[in-house]
Structure formats: structure tokens, C-alpha cells
Write a structure and sequence with these properties.
The structure holds two protein chains of two kinds.
Chain A: H1 2-24, H2 33-61, H3 67-72, H4 83-86, H5 92-113, H6 119-147, H7 151-164, H8 176-183, H9 194-207, H10 230-238, H11 240-244
Chain B: H1 12-15, H2 28-31, E1 34-40, E2 43-48, H3 57-71, E3 75-80, H4 93-102, E4 104-105, H5 110-117, E5 134-138, E6 146-151, E7 157-161
Chain lengths: ~250, ~160
């Protein structure tokens, strides 16, 4: 139970950590000042949520590690985030497409996690749900603006959606820890979010005049710690300070 | 909120000295982040709740509260609580006035907030001239809790404190 709960929390938190890091990379590099600030604010929200999750995970693990150790000192294959969130900041269309494809899932997920029997997880979800609804509003807006914009912006957004689509199905895969926690009334049954997810996504894409990709094969592996090449580079940046100055404190 | 039953009256003046580091015109009581403050035996026990999960002001507020009570000769312990989640409804009337005077438009009700942030309706009042002829510049402002607006009459750019419910 304890081990499954610990794994479960990481499964939830790692997505936000890695996406938060990706958005944080835009600090000073956003396409405009306002967008730069928006992206880093989203990053900050995600990091804030992650702190609550990892503090709880550290308490559950009870082996002397703290939130920073869990966030910073794991190896690549020990991160269990979905592949979607580690995909690189190719261009702004990719950044918003990745955000949108995750936000829609994230909001649906948190709305269910609010009902968790685990009071800490439920409290974090209740707090986060308010923040994430702003994220989704922001990213949906950009999908529509770029999709239904100029010929060039439309093409770029379509390319991003086409490329990232292959990573969406993994969101709805259950791990062993997931199954165990669903049984306890603690975890969210992600398989049940799928229909709703694609319904919301499709309606936004339609409004954005974008076409919905038809794919038969979907990528997976992140939840088992098997990642795309991009995660290693991201982690080397994320973990630099802790690796260079072990045990440093902020 | 000051009428909060979980705060000992004698502790109010000390809490009132601590302000939000990002918005110095607001005390933490005005912000509604103090959820509990009681003298138990010889120790002050305090519960704070963050506005946003990632609010960097939270650690500073915690340190400031600790310092204020220690200066007043109290022993103090501070807990951060997440539930119930903070809402902009907990900002006091005084707090809303102070925000507006400081140049931050106070939060609207949830539905109106949505209209304002989607750019559907021009309803956020300019903090400089009072005109409602204002436009959304960015859904996120200088901090996660704010959005950026500009007045189309006097041209003043200003922050709007987003509704969180």
C-alpha cells in the first residue's frame, strides 16, 4: 500500500515537474513579453503543485529523503512522467500544443482526484484545479488563435498537433500502482477520462479549423521509465545544481 | 478575514504588521491567508494557506510571521495548510480597496471574470481613471495571480487580480 501510494504520487507529480521545467526554459525566451510571463507563471503553478506532491511523497517514503531529493536526484529511468510533457520546445506552436494536450487531461484528472479518499491528494487537487483551469483557457486560446490565424500559423499548429498526437494515448494507460490505488479509492481511473478528453480536444481543434489526426500507433513508455532522448537533456539542466553542489540548499 | 473565529484577538495587531511581499499594501489578514492563530500554552500556533501553489511569497510570509512574533516575545510554530483552498473571496473589503488604490483591479465575480479574461466583455475598471473601456493584454501578469490589462481611454497599463474560486 505504502509503496504503491509513493509510486502513484510520483506518477502524478513527475508530469507537472517535467512540463514545469519545459515551460520554465522559456523564461526570457518567450515570443513576446506577455507570453513569456504567462509561460513562466504556468511553470510556477506546476512547480508549486509538485512541491506539495513531493513533500507528501517524502513523508510516505519516510527514508530521510526530502522533496528536493525526490525532484532532483533520481536517474532518468526513475522518472515516470508521460512522454508528451518531455517533448522539446520546438517552436511556439509545439509549446502550446503540448500544453493544451496536457492541460485538458490534467484538468479532467484533477477534478477526479478531488474526490480521492486520501485527504492530502484531495487537498492538492482542489488547490490545483483552480490554477489548471486558467492554464487550459490560455492554451486553448492559442490553439484557436494560431489554428484559425494565418496560413503559416495554421500549418505550424497543424504540424505540432500531428507530431504530438502520438503521445496522447499514453495518458490513459494504467500502471500497477494506478490499479492498486483505484481499488483503494485513492487513485483516479484514467481509462475513464479518455472519451471526455478526446471530445474536448476535438471540439477545440474543430473551432481552430485544425484537422484531427488519424493514427493507429501511439507511443508509450514514460510511465515505465522508458523515455525519449529528450528527457536526459532536460534533466541535466534541471539537476545541474544538485549534482554540482551536492546537498546544497536554497 | 478578520472575523475568522480561529484567530485570537490579542494576536491580531502582530499579524496586522505582516504584509504580502508582492503587494505591500495588503496585510496577510486582508489577503485571508491566515487561517488559524491561537496561543496554546506558551506557544503561538499559526496556520497559513497559500494563494497559489507556487506562490514564492509564501516562504517569505512564513519567515516574516515568525520574525514578528519572536520580536513580540512569543514562541511560534507555523503550519502550511492546503485545505480548504484559498479563494479571492477571502480578501477583505479593506484589502480590495487597498488593491485598487495601489493600481491593481480587485477580482470580479467568477462569471464576470471569465468574460473579462476571454476578452468577451469590457468590464474591468481602470485603476487610474475608472473607465471600463479596458482590454486584456495577457491572461498572466507580473505574478500568477494577476492578469495584465490596459485602459483604452487613459492608456494606463494595470494589473487585474484574477478571481480564484
Amino acid at each position: 500500500m505504502k509503496e504503491n501510494l509513493y509510486k502513484y504520487i510520483l506518477g502524478v507529480a513527475d508530469n507537472s515537474l517535467i512540463l514545469g521545467q519545459r515551460m520554465g526554459e522559456l523564461c526570457g525566451h518567450g515570443p513576446s513579453l506577455e507570453t513569456d510571463i504567462a509561460c513562466t507563471n504556468i511553470s510556477l503553478d506546476l512547480f508549486g503543485q509538485v512541491r506539495s506532491y513531493y513533500q507528501y511523497a517524502a513523508k510516505i517514503a519516510g527514508d530521510g529523503r526530502n522533496e528536493d531529493d525526490i525532484a532532483m536526484l533520481r536517474k532518468e529511468h526513475e522518472y515516470v512522467n508521460v512522454l508528451l510533457v518531455e517533448q522539446p520546445n520546438t517552436d511556439f506552436a509545439y509549446i502550446m500544443a503540448r500544453q493544451f494536450l496536457f492541460d485538458v487531461y490534467h484538468l479532467l484528472f484533477l477534478q477526479e482526484l478531488e474526490k480521492s479518499k486520501d485527504l492530502t491528494l484531495s487537498a492538492i487537487a482542489k488547490k490545483s484545479v483552480k490554477e489548471v483551469s486558467y492554464h487550459q483557457r490560455f492554451s486553448s486560446d492559442w490553439i484557436k488563435r494560431l489554428g484559425d490565424g494565418t496560413e503559416e500559423s495554421h500549418q505550424k499548429m497543424q504540424d505540432a498537433i500531428d507530431d504530438l498526437w502520438t503521445y496522447t494515448d499514453e495518458l490513459f494507460h494504467q500502471t500497477e500502482a494506478d490499479k492498486a490505488m483505484v481499488k483503494e479509492g485513492i487513485g483516479v481511473d484514467v481509462t475513464k477520462l479518455k472519451d471526455n478528453y478526446y471530445q474536448i480536444i476535438n471540439s477545440v481543434l474543430e473551432e481552430a479549423t485544425l484537422s484531427i489526426p488519424e493514427l493507429k500507433y501511439f507511443q508509450k513508455g514514460g510511465k515505465q521509465g522508458i523515455h525519449t532522448e529528450h528527457l536526459g537533456y532536460l534533466l541535466s539542466d534541471l539537476q545541474y545544481m544538485q549534482r554540482t553542489y551536492p546537498n546544497m540548499e536554497w | 478575514m478578520i472575523e475568522h473565529a480561529d484567530i485570537d484577538t490579542e494576536l491580531l495587531p502582530i499579524l496586522d504588521q505582516v504584509s504580502d511581499p508582492e503587494i505591500p499594501v495588503l496585510t496577510i489578514l486582508d489577503m485571508g491567508v491566515v487561517r488559524y492563530a491561537k496561543l496554546v500554552d506558551d506557544e503561538v500556533k499559526i496556520k497559513l494557506t497559500p494563494t497559489y501553489s507556487g506562490c514564492p511569497a509564501m516562504d517569505v510570509i512564513s519567515d516574516d510571521v515568525k520574525a514578528a512574533f519572536e520580536k513580540a516575545g512569543y514562541k511560534v510554530s507555523i503550519d502550511l495548510i492546503l485545505s480548504p483552498a484559498w479563494t479571492t473571496d477571502w480578501i477583505s473589503e479593506e484589502g480590495r480597496d487597498a488593491l485598487e488604490k495601489y493600481g491593481i483591479a480587485p477580482p470580479l465575480e467568477a462569471d464576470a471574470d471569465k468574460d473579462a479574461l476571454l476578452g468577451n466583455k469590457r468590464i474591468v475598471k481602470c485603476t487610474n481613471c475608472g473607465s471600463q473601456n479596458t482590454k486584456l493584454v495577457s491572461q498572466f501578469g507580473s505574478t500568477a495571480c494577476k492578469a495584465l490589462f490596459q485602459c483604452e481611454d487613459c492608456q494606463e497599463p494595470f494589473d487585474y487580480f484574477k478571481c480564484l474560486k
